[in-house]
């Protein structure tokens, strides 16, 4: 069970939800970066690493029998705010391809560094699977 929280007097959020209430089996996915499951860096661009990062999140989620629509929160850590903003068109296209029109709660935070030197971003995810 999942319900989007949208205060009636607020403008509708674009690309994310302000809040979600959900019940079910919780899945916590560690921060993922833009390397493949074998630890190979095939993408150098921000948008390319974003696409791979979301694929990694969805691969881990699938192990719990979860789908993109079960994700309730994404926390993004980006190295360069300007590079993120310049990549929004490509990031949006990759997001819609992989996640559809499901928009969980999100936060995007600029950080001074990530542990993986080649990473341009890292994303953590939380999902809630329906109880059977």
Spell out the key features of this protein.
132 residues, two-stranded antiparallel sheet, four-stranded mixed beta sheet, single chain, alpha+beta, 6 strands
Task: Summarize the structure in words.
The protein is an alpha+beta fold. A four-stranded mixed sheet has the order 3-6-4-5. Strands 1-2 form a two-stranded antiparallel ribbon. It is built from three helices and six strands, in the order E-E-E-H-E-H-H-E-E. Helices cover 27% and strands 30% of the residues. The chain is globular and about 40 Å long.
Q: Give me the strand/helix succession.
A: EEEHEHHEE
Cα shape: globular
Radius of gyration: 15 Å
Question: How would you sum up the major sheet?
Answer: 4 strands, mixed
Strand content: 25-35%
Task: Report the end-to-end length measured between terminal Cα atoms.
Answer: 11 Å
What's this, in brief?
This protein has helices at 46-62, 81-86, 88-99; strands at 2-5, 19-22, 25-32, 71-78, 105-110, 121-129.
Strand and helix layout:
Elements: E1 2-5, E2 19-22, E3 25-32, H1 46-62, E4 71-78, H2 81-86, H3 88-99, E5 105-110, E6 121-129
Parallel strand pairs: 4-5
Antiparallel strand pairs: 1-2, 3-6, 4-6
